[in-house]
Amino acid sequence: MDTTTTTNLSINQFDCLPDEILEKIFSSLSTHLPLTPNNHVRLNAHSYYFDYSMQKPLLKQTHAELSQVSLVCRRFYRIIKARQFWEQQCRLEYILLPDQHFPVDFDAYEKIYVNNPFHPSFNLLQDNKWFKSRRTNSKIELVPIGSYRLYDEFNRLSPCRVTSYTLAQFFQRDIQLPCEGPGSNDFAKLRPIIEFSVCVAPRWDAGSECQIKLDFSDGHKWQHAKVFPQWSPRNWHKIIYRYGQYEDFPSLVTVMIAGKDTQLWGGFYGTKFAQTRLRLLFRTSENELNTENVEVIEPKIEDEPSEEPVPNTLEDNLPIDQGTLAITIDADAMTTKVQWKRLDGTIGQNPKPRHGHRAVAVKDLIIIFGGGNEGIVEDLNVYNCASNQWFQPLVKGDVPTGCAAFGFATDGTRILVFGGMIEYGKYSADLWELNPLKWEWKKLKPRPPRTAPLPCARLGHTLTYAEGKFYLFGGLANDSKDPKQNVPRYLNDLYVLEYKGNSCSWEQPMIINASPSERESHSSVFYRGQIENRPKLIIYGGMNGHRLGDLWNFHLDFSQWTQITPSGLAPQPRSLHSAVVMGNRMFVFGGWVPLVTSDKNDHYTNEKEWKCTNTLAAFNLETNAWELLGQECLEDNVPRARAGHCSVAVNTRMYIWSGRDGYRKAWNNQVCCKDLWCLETACPGEPEKVQLLKAGIGNLEISWNPVPTGMLI
Length: 713
Known about the structure:
By secondary structure, this protein is mainly beta. 9% of the residues lie in helices and 35% in strands.
């Protein structure tokens, strides 16, 4: 490999690798092999020995970094894909203990390393996969009423789900064993123990009962029933079942838990459930028996109540989507205080209410474009947060046609509009730029990608500014040439628009791993981690025939998607919602959420009915956890349910405006909201000391540094 080739490779192929790895790579290679599209995949008959001198520095890298290093040459590929390498990784990080040994032919150490199914906190019960039967009525108690408090192994207070007088049934069906881990063939060699556990408790002044059932794909079944008479002790009971006596490792299991109160009292007096877990245990003996055990959890002394506690609660009048059966909540997460305020008495003429519009913030200005109700509009409206004033700037230039459900993003000096619906069934692929200093429009003609066509016409996509570039993701295309004959096609493509001087061009990054499913009407935000200090996009929700509730990261520095497995109380799957980032949290508001009306099809797939919501959720981008929000829930103190609205973040406040309330299914002539709301997430900072500039007879001149726009609440 000559010097020129080395330079090109280091610049073009390895930009995403840290300098430390690059130095080790090029100083340690004894046989230089050029990187071609095939040489790291097509392994020929040549023999490559296992290089222990290179293994030692590579063991210090993360899994994502190693995936990049394996593309350098066939030698590195062989090292990183070797069984011995990943076994050492597992031993070094104590994923496997010294007394744990796998069969000689076991070849899935890398999968064990990436998603360790034997970790004590590993849980196959996903928080957002719980569903309930139609007649189920329950709610969430953050602090249990009528029973002792329950803590997890980290001494965190656990919330619980409490049932009522009708039998409440909760399901997770066909759980794969293990989820996203090694395949069944690999695991059949290990023969792990399958452990299910759940904590149940009565309300001391009411009788209650519970039922638990497990159905395994090999035909094995287990069930447990427990009855609590009235005036039972307040203790929690941990029920544990271990299944190890199987012939073939079962690939699927269905979990059902149910409970009710036996007094038939109105309200929530039935059995409480918490800390539900399904995990795998390393087998220590070939002849381990199936075991069932019930442990009575003794309360902490300070938790013995002298009088009834008064907890916060969350109503549960929807399909079970918050997963509190399987999670615990840190006390800090329950103290996030926010407050809504309706902004009445604005100055200037309010814009006409609409849906499908978009908004961005440039300093204290909220700039809103497009959307509509009785026809699509092309007007531009601006709200000044500092003066509480609406105005319509006098625009000039090549003004775009009105559109709805388009991409809208800004870098602070320019605002871009891409795509959207310009009339029913007719979508656009045009790109427009607005200069917010001159209020001047112009149409752009970006260069196409070098290896892909230009982005197709679409709606319901997202356009997000991050690290000097604009990222376009997803949306809905119409494959019919006749707008009246709509042939929808959901998209999950990703394009990047970059400016170079006065020109711009599209590129399509090369992605080597799995991407999010096709979708439209999702949300996308940018965040740079405070801990890992890496830039990423966060994609949430949307729809592709049914509402979605999954979360994905797109890492900008090495063009890779990863799906987030969040903890905490997950909100319902949704589309046409809004999401903004303030601090280290993503705030999600409103949107369409599904209604489940069939007992037989107790899931969200292909739902036929939905409704608007006004729920607010916060996702911690550092801990990947959904957090509880302390907010007033009186009807007059929160915005109405809506979808297709707009929201922006200005300092520590989120503003939302308009949107449709969802009572009519036709696109035109909707009932649209007229109100403007603000969510305060933190108190404005204190101003600095006032400084005296000049004093005279009858006058004083003073100054102080400005504080970000605040409001009195």
